[in-house]
């Protein structure tokens, strides 16, 4: 009787974790319309009477200006990694490297494990003027970030839910099996799936935070002077050029943003010179 009570208690506790994970998935999907691979985006007519297929057709005809207009119109109805990706390709072909990088970054934010997006982003970055050497990270931190970004938030959520049900099965064998070997198997696999559920929840929460609280931006103007204070009279510190990715450190002012580079440099730039990813 005590085993059943304990099993049900653990099941309820893990169910709360699972539902919290599912809520993470639902909340993110409400804010960003993530639709899978590049070929799966729906061709359903939008309110503005344009479809992704029309944008793709314009792109294949080398009519990049029309493709950009169509993709931009589609994004007004909801975000999708595939549209951002193709919009980035269109801007790249049109010679606007800064906006190409901006849209590749937005696509990568939604699908961090997509190798095509990452490869095109690196190609575009190679054409920028500024070469910033990032501050070296501890190996463990870099490895953890890579692990988190190998899957998107919705995939981590699904991993957490599947791991939860497998955990319940493992607990069933541990508590109710009469054979020692099955109890041992249930115990060991239960620990493994418990760790998996916890990590999946943590990773999904981390990616959800990045999606909802975007604090990185791209410089869109040909060049911008970074100043020591939020004023044109501030001391000139250094110059950044279009396509440079920056972290917004202080977003409290309307006309100015305090930024930080990957190498640790900080300063202020006009808000009109950057656009949030």
Automatic annotation (TrEMBL):
Alphabetized UniProt keyword annotations: Membrane, Signal, TPR repeat, Transmembrane, Transmembrane helix
InterPro entries on file: SH3-like_bac-type (IPR003646), SH3-like_dom_sf (IPR036028), TPR-like_helical_dom_sf (IPR011990), TPR_rpt (IPR019734)
Transmembrane portions of the chain: 155-175, 187-205
TPR repeat locations: 81-114
Signal sequence interval, chain numbering: 1-22
Domain SH3b: 223-274
Record flagged with keyword tRNA processing: no
Source organism superkingdom: Bacteria
Protein known as: SH3b domain-containing protein
Species annotation: Bacteroides oleiciplenus YIT 12058
Taxonomic lineage: Bacteria, Pseudomonadati, Bacteroidota, Bacteroidia, Bacteroidales
